[in-house]
Amino acid sequence: MNTGLSLLVLVTTALIVAVISSPSLVTRRSGKVLAFVALFLLPSLITGMGFVLHLEHAKSTDFCLSCHVMEPYGTSLHFDDLSYLVADHYQNNLVPREQACYTCHTQYTMFGDVQAKLGGLKHVWVYYTGQTPETLELYQPYQNRECLHCHGASRSFVEGELHVDLLDDMRSNEVSCLECHEQVHDAANAASHAIWTHPDQDRR
Amino acid sequence: MTRDSSTDPSSDVRSHLSRAGVLIVLGLLVEASTLFSAHPTAFLVFAGAGAGLVVLGIAVYFWAVLRAQPVPVDR
After folding, report:
1. CATH number at A64-203
2. Which of A12, A113, A129, B54 sits in a 20 to 30 Å window from A154, CA-based?
């Protein structure tokens, strides 16, 4: 946990104990201000900071894969077959490994971050209320925008032999990147794939 | 001797302040304990129990403030 936040919780608790253990304190103007700070301002601040920290945690790959239904998607990150988009991106560090899911599944728009987090809250709700569907699907078709956020300006994209004639169509999302790069997760058959482990992991 | 601006909180207000304090401290402890984990359950406990207790405590505090009536100090 954040050290600053821990200290803030301790200070707030001490102030609250002081306020409620000596009620005469709040008869003075300074005491009333102290009570307002201890019983409203600081708890509100801590709760807000806690929300922000939890939402940051929610970006982590571990967070996404902690739900049982996501396990096959996590397995696909380790497929020993780089023709799978997720395996290639994860194993070759094309996305930060600790935020692999979030990096590709957030929306790169003005409020995309907020929408991704609201979507995450919806996932949590669906999971805990037992409404998880048999087959997981995205809420809306995957947008090229998310791929082009990183690849859009890259030489391999703008000069790619098969890309050149389709650049405008891909930028306008009329042709999906996934029409050609169609091997993504294969979660349904994740258990049948060979798994790649990093050599450093074997040495530990 | 009387002091116009000085008031003692009534026992009702005092008990409300105590309740508010206890609720908020409990809520903060729950919130703090969940921040050690990056798991959806931790977030649910944070939002449902921790933040819930804090909001309830703050509501009780404001209720106590709104209900507070000035009580003259003993002469």
Report:
1. 1.10.3820
2. A113
